[in-house]
Amino acid sequence: MSIKEFWEDQHTQNTRTWLTGTSLDQILKAYDLTKESLANIKCLEIGVGLVTVTEPLSKLVATLYCTDISDKALTKAGPYTSGAWHTQQIDQIPPVDMAICHLVMIHCDDKECERILRSINLLPGGKIYCQFSCLKSADALENVSHKIRHQLIDSGMHFFRTEEEIQHLCDVAGLQIVKSKYFDPGSYHGWNGQYWQFYQLERA
Q1: pTM for this entry
Q2: At what angle do helices 110-119 and 163-172 cross, to 10 degrees?
Q3: β-strands 175-183, 83-86: how paired?
Q4: How far is CA 179 from CA 43, 155, 202, in A?
Q5: What's the rounded Cα separation, in Å, for the pair 52 and 103?
Q6: What's the Cα-to-Cα distance from 112 to each of 35, 119, 143, 169, 172, rounded to whole Å?
Q7: Distance of alpha carbon 179 from the chain centroid
Q8: DSSP 8-state secondary structure symbol assigned to residue 127
Q9: 14-55 pLDDT per residue, tens
């Protein structure tokens, strides 16, 4: 099964294990944004999940574009957007003031991360708000149950990075880290070995 087929299947089933139900309020809190700061801007949402951010976000911004690897996901997001593109077409999306990429890079290898970050068309002064997943210790993945280890490693669908590796990805993509914030998501299927870094990025 290809990665695209995997995500099409998850969106068909609305699988809560893989598709997050992150709310707009959680996004705003994570990246220190306000609803007022979203007014009159052009925004790109990268990875729409269960469309729990897409719908309310569309009511706040002037223009909302979306991109996802799944055609089914884009169909769900379509009614709330001014345009929806497959992730491979991200460089075709018109320039935006803001791009939100939350809980996406964990599923992308370095080459895809670089491609996505480099391909986002930003207007002057535009910002990218992006989350990366990191490990609390070098042996964190060794201390998980067989079930979780299969989900995190054997499936090949999770990519954890050090903050130095994230910095390198940003450098290669021509981005500078303006602000970063640590967040502990707590238990993940009974596993506490990861932490998240929230970044505000701008073109270097």
Answers
A1: 0.93
A2: 50
A3: unpaired
A4: 19, 32, 10
A5: 13
A6: 30, 10, 28, 10, 12
A7: 17
A8: E
A9: 777 677 789 999 999 999 999 999 999 999 999 998 899 999
